[in-house]
Design goal:
With 195 residues, the protein is an alpha/beta fold. Helix content is 26%, strand content 29%. The chain contains four helices and ten strands; from the N terminus they run E-E-H-E-H-E-E-H-E-H-E-E-E-E. Helix 1 packs across helix 2.
Amino acid sequence: MNSQPPRHSLVQPRQFRRQRILRIQLDTYYRAIEVLAGEARRRHSPITATIGIANGGLAPAQGVSELLHVPTYRVNAKHNPTDATYSEATGVVTYDLYPLTSELAGHRLTGTVLVVDDICGTGATFTTLLPELTAYLGPEVALRTVALCRNAGSVLNPDLWIWTVDDWVSFPWEQPPAADAPIEDLPIPIQVQTP
């Protein structure tokens, strides 16, 4: 795996009020995927693929891909030192493009490719991966960032996201965190947020 600090100088801490765990229920998640896919189609066509940032971005990337009828690829990246509730980001993103490069060996992508993650916590993962993906995919591919959530402390706004959050988020594919905080369900989304 490659490792590098993000391309902006300071990593702002994520905002955690530490008052509750924000939970995305399965039906809310499915609606969020529909809203993201519809807005991505409206704003960024022709979309030719999604790239899910593993692990958390794989499920939403696959969901969006299914609705847009495009393939999903993956890259591996890690910014959190642990999966513990309220863990702060390190400022160093480790990543591996091999899953993508091995699947695309001999093929080229064109058009718009959505780079998808579950949450844009600080912006460091997107900031680190986008130049690497651009260098690999070439200038004929337009990369657009998509996330289910954006932490209120992030220095980066993805191109599309659903919720701005200020506490820990529990996603449908994760084990619920062992925390004493109350659980608050995020609302069913009506529209996408943009910068």
